[in-house]
Amino acid sequence: MKRLLSVALGIVTSIGGFLEIGSITTAAQAGADYRYQLIWAVLLGAICIALLIEMSGRFAAVSKHTIADAVRERFGVHFFLVPLFLLCFVSILVLAAEIGGVAVAIEMITGIHFPVWALPVGLLAWGLLWYGTFSIIENGITLLGLITIAFLIAALQLGPDWHALVAGIAPSLPAKQPSHYWFIAVSILGASVSPYLFYFYSAGAIEEEWDESYLGSNRLVAGAGMGFGGFLNVAVLVVAALVLAPRGISVDKYQQLPLLLSSPWGRIGLGVFALSLFVTCIGATTEIALALAYQIAQGFGWNWGEDLEPSGDARFSLTYTIVLLLATLLVAIGIDPLKLTTLSMALTAASLPVAIIPFLVLMNDRRYLGEHTNGWLGNLSILVVCVLASVVAIVSIPLEIGGGS
Amino acid sequence: MRVHLVRDVLDKQLLDISGQNAGKVDGIVLETRPGALMVVRYIEVGPITLARRINRRLGDWVAQLDARFGEGRGVAIRFPFARVQLESPSLRIDVSAASTPIMAFERWLRRVVVRHIPWS
């Protein structure tokens, strides 16, 4: 019964924690610019992250290693430092985007410009990490994220064109601005397949002392949680296609985002959108800061654990403090959260092979996983998607920045 | 038992006698003797050895910095290999990390930073 409750909680928190500034923005841009044509990218991202989350949980449960720990152990310190530096750089940008998301949510309610809120938001996230526990971060905040079901309700209420929606499941070439189309497609993948998610998940599995008896529930949580989360992301795209596309609004200012819910529901919609953005982004902020601290602490063999007092893992606690401070400063100096989000999601996609390929090597190493190594289909599908996403991102980022089409 | 030094020792997680994380095995010290096989003498842990593996000059700089923290500092932290136990998935040493320089930076942070933050 206890295990059943834990699985249910895992699924619910995965759904509640799926959306954040990256997935909301990229899905909204996709719906606004290409209506239902990019649904395939959202679904592909959800399938990939479900597979990767299942793998990271399986890896931790069977090998008793976190991913960062095993990458250092298996490939040595020189190799370990490459993904560490790259992922730290990209993750700090994503972290800044999430802090920006919370600050923008407060701006939507108060009318006070977002940079003013950067420091209070950074402090709030730091306070949750410093004084909170893993359970508060993983269960408490992400449970509140269930408010994002509002997007699903709005999508159903607005009445999508089901025929066009189903047609969007199959990838197709765009009629206009192909480089922008592919840029959004890889940004969607970058927002969904964020490496911090599986670093966080594997560390959580070790903190909760998973063993092989958890493999079934891990599969269920990853599949159902990420699957339903993916549907919520599709719902954001559908709402954008129904609300923004007919008015010719392309999401190029963050102030346009609340229209997704304020258009169908008025002032209540604005409040629900702001609250959704606040809760999901503060949840993602704490998870990314923790994931970065996990990666560094596990790679260098320090004491780590969100459930330990900061005096018991001072280096770990100071690490998340520093990354939070750096990201907060980026928002405080006024960098546009929307531009930061779009760029950081595309950069995440570009850097995917660096994070994913070593992980896939580990997932095929019998010394770590015994009989639980990956099958060829899982390996191939993740590898192809990540490498393609990376190549397309590397090509489309300069074109997007240069304004080419 | 056959031990592969790079696979089974180098970069492995080290635990102390109470199961606390005590860093990674950052280096292995071998002793060569004329006409005899090499003998594994010590494992090394800590930023000086780690930095030296990345770059010699960086290692020397870290050692100079570390030396400022007091007497006996500024050199690599070593444990006799004979006192290291292989306990998959980690290695274990038979001392408390708290009593060694491994935790010096952690202790310094605790004393200088964490202690001054309310309710920590």
Keywords, separated by commas or semicolons:
heterodimer, A: 405 residues, mainly alpha, 17 helices, 78% helix, B: 120 residues, alpha+beta, 4-stranded mixed β-sheet, 3-stranded antiparallel β-sheet, 4 helices, 7 strands
Report on this model:
The complex is a heterodimer of chains A (405) and B (120). By secondary structure, chain A is an all-alpha fold. Chain A is built from 17 helices and no strands. The longest helix of chain A is centred in the first third of the chain and has 44 residues, at 67-110. The relative contact order of chain A is 0.22. Chain B has 120 residues and is α+β, with helices and mostly antiparallel strands. Chain B is built from 4 helices and 7 strands. In chain B, helix 2 runs antiparallel to helix 3. Classes of the chains: A mainly alpha (405), B alpha+beta (120). The interface between A and B is medium-sized, with 27 and 26 residues.
Specify which chain pair forms the largest interface: A-B, 27 and 26 residues
What fraction, in percent, of the residue positions of chain B are helical? 25-40%
Helix-strand makeup class of chain A: mainly alpha
Could you give the order of the helices and strands of chain A?
Answer: HHHHHHHHHHHHHHHHH
Q: What percentage of the residues of chain B does DSSP assign to strands (E)?
A: 25-35%
Radius of gyration of chain B: 16 Å
Number of helices of chain A: 17
Distance between the termini of chain A: 55 Å
Calculate Rg of chain A over CA atoms. Answer: 20 Å
Broad structural category of chain B: alpha+beta
Strand content of chain A: under 5%
Rounded mean pLDDT of chain B is 91
What is the string of helix and strand elements of chain B? Answer: HEEEEHHEEEH
Number of strands of chain B: 7
Low-confidence stretches of chain A: none
Broad shape of chain B: globular
Q: How are the strands of the largest sheet of chain B arranged?
A: 2-1-7-6
Number of helices of chain B: 4
